[in-house]
Design a protein that fits this description.
The protein is of the alpha/beta class. The protein contains 10 helices and 8 strands. The longest helix has 15 residues.
Amino acid sequence: WSESIRRLLIQTFKKNKIVSLPQTIYFSNTEKGKYERENTRRIYNAHSNLTIITRDPKSEEIAKELLTKARIFCMPDFVLSMKPKKSLHKNNPPEALIVLRQDNESFLSAEQRKAVSDLLPYKCIYFDTVNDTPIKEQERISVLEKCLDVFRSTDVVVTDRFHGVIFSIICCKSCVALRSIDHKLISGWHWFKDIPFVKFANDISEIKHLIEESFSIEKREIPDFNKHYFNKIPEIINWAGKNC
């Protein structure tokens, strides 16, 4: 639905300068995926003053292949503009927060999702960052803070959600990420590879070892994404074309 909204805005405001904030670009190699890809290409290329910010190198590559008129560059996800909300809270014994997709973007089977908790010698709590309930504007901050409180209250996060990784980073919590069906996390890992307490597992059998590695990292500092990236956007909008 988010792509439908973007298309509607681009078609409606043909003479306005439009900047689309960081997004993943992915189309499945199916008839529907090819149809949607062509729709996006046609609508975006009809706009004369469009800037697309992708949030991973693969999405940037796809955008540059599809969109011949838009200005395109790459930035991290905007949620990383939040100030770190570090917590010194530790559970004894440690607790793991399991944040796994259960939709068609999941790379794991139902059996593999269940096996994640079976592999770990910790109390495991299942949680999801997706909230299907409509949230009123005045409630948004409190809903977000409650979600972050869940991350702060745990010791390690195991997730295949992009924002599961990002919330872990904001809360300075150990995290082991698993891939999703698309390139969202694999390519998006570009931004996280130098954060030592965040690990990427190629298989669920690696999770326990990577958690132990992450627990051994005492220094919990994260890059200043505002300084390195987001504060530069006003300038870059007038000079696009930088690579990730």
